[in-house]
Design brief:
- This protein is mainly alpha-helical.
- It has helices at residues 15-21, 63-69; strands at residues 24-25, 39-40.
- The chain has a two-stranded parallel sheet.
Length: 72
């Protein structure tokens, strides 16, 4: 199933919360195992620079995100 959302977006401040609330797998390779992860965010680059993604299921800090946020 492919869902192309064209309506109004959500604020960057709540992006991580929404991904967690909807049980969206944010891992790069759809690697989360569990019946609750029916959704996978295919275009992760759309959320580049959003700081609160650390609460999203499957989030892993990469070198790019560390340099952008200044955190390790």
């Amino acid at each position: 199933m492919e869902y192309n959302h064209t309506g109004p977006g959500i604020r960057a401040a709540v992006a991580g919360y929404v991904l967690r609330r909807w049980n969206v797998d944010y891992s790069e390779d759809h690697s989360l195992d569990g019946p609750e992860y029916h959704l996978w965010l295919k275009n992760r680059q759309a959320l580049y620079g959003v700081e609160n993604l650390v609460i999203a299921p499957g989030y892993q800090a990469t070198a790019d995100t560390k340099s952008y946020t200044g955190k390790e």
